[in-house]
Design brief:
Order of helices and strands: EEEHEHEHEHEH
Number of helices: 5
Strand order of the largest sheet: 4-3-5-6-7
Structural class: alpha/beta
Radius of gyration: 14 Å
Strand content: 15-25%
CATH topology: Rossmann fold
CATH architecture: 3-Layer(aba) Sandwich
Shape: globular
């Protein structure tokens, strides 16, 4: 998966190691061989995505695809989503929500905040593979601001 000829890095924010392994396995089964950078909590993931100063400039010319679990030990996934989508340097990054919550209000809130795809765990892997491939297409047409 490339964007403007550049490799896309997948950022996986998931605190359950079993789920993380399953997600990675299924990303690979979908034929996606991009680097996956895993995080077990929101704090370290946000530091990676927005930079230690939280300005977001570190991601100004990076292509990241974010796989985000909503239930994390240190902060809620919706807070992370909000910080990514409110930052001028990261708001264009696609975010896939992967969570056990199928509460309609929570799903709507994620879409309102700017999530691109919402997938309920246990993941239907065909649907997951399709979503990842569609986001790959999404990357191929992204214009960098």
């Amino acid at each position: 998966m490339k964007a403007n000829g550049r490799e896309v890095t997948i950022v996986m924010i998931e605190d359950d190691e079993g789920h993380a392994r399953l997600i990675e396995k299924n990303v690979r089964r979908a034929g996606v061989h991009n680097e996956i950078v895993p995080f077990m909590n929101g704090t370290s993931a946000l530091e990676y995505i927005l930079g230690p100063d939280m300005s977001g400039t570190v991601s100004a010319d990076r292509y990241l695809l974010i796989l985000l679990d909503l239930n994390l030990p240190d902060m809620s996934g919706t807070d992370i989503l909000q910080q990514i989508k409110e930052n001028p340097f990261t708001k264009r990054l696609p975010v896939v929500i992967l969570t056990t919550t199928d509460d309609a209000r929570e799903i709507q809130r994620c879409y309102d905040l700017g999530a691109n795809v919402y997938i309920t765990k246990p993941v239907d892997y065909e649907g997951f593979a399709n979503a990842i491939r569609q986001l790959g297409l999404f990357f191929s047409v992204i214009e960098v601001p």
